[in-house]
Write a structure and sequence with these properties.
This protein has 264 residues and is mostly helical. The protein contains 8 helices and 2 strands, in the order E-E-H-H-H-H-H-H-H-H. The protein has 2 domains: 33 residues, no CATH class; 175 residues, no CATH class. A hairpin with a 5-residue loop joins strand 1 and strand 2.
Length: 264
């Protein structure tokens, strides 16, 4: 394996990785790694082949898997793994090759920045892979993602209690009215009087991830049976003239920028 360095016509240094037989070998390696590329050598489904195969799962079993996975890869990857891991066993590709652990960055609202909670973020990825994104011509995943975000915001969390919780007893339940990690966790910490590093806060988030995985499987099972209907009522652009979550004013009061509204 070597790296060939040369200057392009603009004087910029370019590095080309040379592996064995060159570009052809590199291309084959990429195809093997992903398993998704639309080529004769790809295994299973591709990104252009929607929907991905799905078999109905047990929501409670999925939630238990997710709860325990949280302690390994945290919220986003735990939700993804709890569903894709089972589908890997039942179906194989494309789930077998999917790098679910790579989404560990969703922890803490995206590497600790407190933006969207990793649980609904991971759930959104699952739904859009299985049902197919809106650009595939099927709006169901878009509506299902909206349903998950609104449910997460309005539910008294955590909903799910694992069979063998790592923290004994009931945990405080709170309603975030927001899909943001900062708001969701912050409200719970205040109500429970527990700091971010406490075992109770960690277990709370593990249970929230499990609750989300449970909800996702319920929705996917209904979709598989042809019974899913979107229920979300959140329409931020229509209501506010800008993309927004559900309760900006709770945190920002009069400092929220007012966008120009479209002429009617």
């Amino acid at each position: 394996m070597t790296v060939e360095e040369k200057l392009d016509d603009k004087g910029m240094l370019r590095r080309q990785l040379m592996i064995g037989g060159g570009v052809m070998a590199a291309g084959a390696a990429i195809t093997h790694f992903g398993g998704f590329l639309n080529s004769a050598g790809a295994v299973g489904c591709t990104f252009e082949n929607w929907p991905w195969p799905y078999e109905k799962l047990d929501p409670a079993k999925t939630a238990e898997i997710c709860y325990n996975e949280w302690y390994r890869v945290f919220c986003g990857s735990a939700v993804i793994n709890s569903i894709f891991g089972q589908l890997n066993e039942k179906i194989g590709e494309p789930y077998k090759s999917f790098p679910a652990d790579a989404f560990v960055y969703l922890e803490g609202g995206h590497v600790g920045w407190g933006t969207i909670c990793g649980s609904p973020a991971g759930a959104s990825l699952v739904v859009n892979c299985i049902v197919g994104p809106r650009i595939s011509g099927n709006p169901a995943a878009h509506h299902m993602t909206e349903d998950i975000l609104q449910w997460y915001s309005e539910a008294s969390m955590p909903v799910f209690t694992p069979a063998k919780p790592r923290i004994a007893g009931e945990l405080v339940k709170t309603t975030s009215q927001s899909p943001l990690c900062h708001v969701s966790v912050g409200k719970w910490m205040k109500a429970a009087n527990k700091p971010i590093g406490s075992p109770e806060r960690k277990d709370r988030c593990a249970r929230v991830a499990a609750s989300t995985a449970y909800k996702v499987v319920e929705l996917l099972n209904a979709w598989k049976d042809g019974k899913y209907e979107g229920k979300s009522t959140h329409a931020p652009v229509k209501d506010y003239g800008i993309t927004a979550q559900m309760n900006c004013m709770e945190c920002h009061a009069g400092n929220v920028p007012t966008p120009p509204m479209a002429k009617k």
